[in-house]
Design goal:
- The chain has eight helices and 15 strands.
- The chain has 334 residues and is of the alpha+beta class.
- The strands form three sheets. Strands 1-2-3-5-4 form a five-stranded antiparallel β-sheet, sandwiched between helices. It has a five-stranded antiparallel β-sheet with strand order 6-15-14-11-12, covered by helices on one side. A five-stranded antiparallel β-sheet has the order 7-8-9-10-13.
């Protein structure tokens, strides 16, 4: 689960810094803990000075050979010229300051996207210092697909009832978004069970995975769930969904994929597979109903060429529904 913080006043700066250090300790990211704390402190401070509706998400980067922390910053401020602001000494308030140059230096990866009049998103990745750069390069440039996701609970809960799972091979990518019915611990249990079934059946097609999840969730409160399988060699996406998970293929045009009404675990659902065309430069975007489906990447100039976490950030910032758990996945070929 990822942590979401709203930057509402100065007291939140210290709160976010402390919670971020605890998050690093929990995920064995001790060598970068202080640098991560400086980055979130600088981002939160800048949000209060220059922006409005600022928020920060912190998430673990976890792989078989690498660990680290990703920080996603979002605001609805006036925006800025990214080339100028990353230079130390430049301040949009007209005063001297370290600006965002220090954030860029402390991060192993740093991506900016700012749209004048709509706001700014910044993604920072810090990797454990014991890891080799070749490992970092492998994370940033995987062999076949890359992806980014966000998964946060409703603000009143410590458990997230949504989950995201991705399985990648050289031949295909398999992706799932699940939304446990309701909120809290019991919704979380349903989502985790769906995730377990997904990883037990990664050699199956989406329809069979959804059917297996439907059977397994009978003892839980149930869930909405969709599974997509991208097979580049056949230029197609196989998609099966039950419930209110949205899936879209975004390329030269947007194709909204079909899910049937229902709740997995009730064992009376219509489970049907749909097949859609896939182009190498397309993106797969899936999300729960904690994200409004009214988004359009056409609103954001040149966004399709940005880091996938930046794409996640702009959709989340502008279309997140705070009164629900929310999960969002963006995936594409490399």
């Amino acid at each position: 689960m990822h942590r979401l913080f709203y930057i509402t006043d100065e007291s939140m700066i210290g709160h976010i810094r402390r919670e971020t250090k605890d998050f690093c300790n929990q995920h064995n990211c001790n060598t970068i803990k202080e640098d991560v704390a400086i980055v979130v402190t600088e981002l939160a401070s800048n949000a209060l000075k220059h922006a409005k509706d600022g928020s920060i998400i912190i998430k673990e980067i976890l792989g078989s050979k690498y660990t680290g922390i990703e920080i996603i910053y979002m605001d609805k401020g006036p925006g800025f010229d990214t080339e100028k602001v990353v230079q130390d000494g430049f301040s949009t308030a007209g005063s001297l300051g370290v600006g965002l140059g220090s954030i860029q230096r402390l991060s192993d990866e740093c991506h900016f996207y700012s749209h004048i009049g709509k706001g700014t998103c910044i993604v920072c990745r810090l990797f454990e210092k014991s890891k080799q750069k070749s490992v970092i390069d492998k994370y940033i440039n995987p062999e076949t697909f890359s992806y980014s996701h966000i998964c946060v609970p409703i603000v009143t809960e410590s458990y997230c009832g949504d989950d995201v799972a991705v399985y990648i091979t050289k031949e295909y990518a398999l992706a799932m978004v699940v939304d446990g019915l309701g909120h809290g611990e019991f919704a979380h249990q349903a989502a985790i069970m769906a995730r377990d079934i997904f990883f037990e059946n990664t050699d199956s097609d989406p329809e069979d995975i959804i059917a297996s999840i439907d059977n397994a969730l009978y003892s839980t409160r149930g869930a909405a769930c969709s599974v997509a399988k991208i097979i580049p060699s056949h230029n197609k996406v196989i998609y099966t969904g039950v419930g209110n998970i949205s899936g879209a293929i975004v390329g030269q045009k947007r194709i909204n994929m079909v899910s049937h009404n229902g709740t997995l675990g009730m064992r009376n659902n219509k489970i049907q597979t749909f097949t859609y065309p896939w182009n190498k430069y397309d993106m797969l975007i899936m999300h729960s109903d904690g994200i409004s489906a009214k988004w359009s990447l056409d609103e954001y100039p040149d966004i399709a060429h940005k880091d996938l976490s930046i794409i996640n950030a702009v959709i989340f910032r502008d279309y997140h529904r705070p009164k629900d758990d929310a999960s969002l996945l963006v995936l594409k070929e490399v």
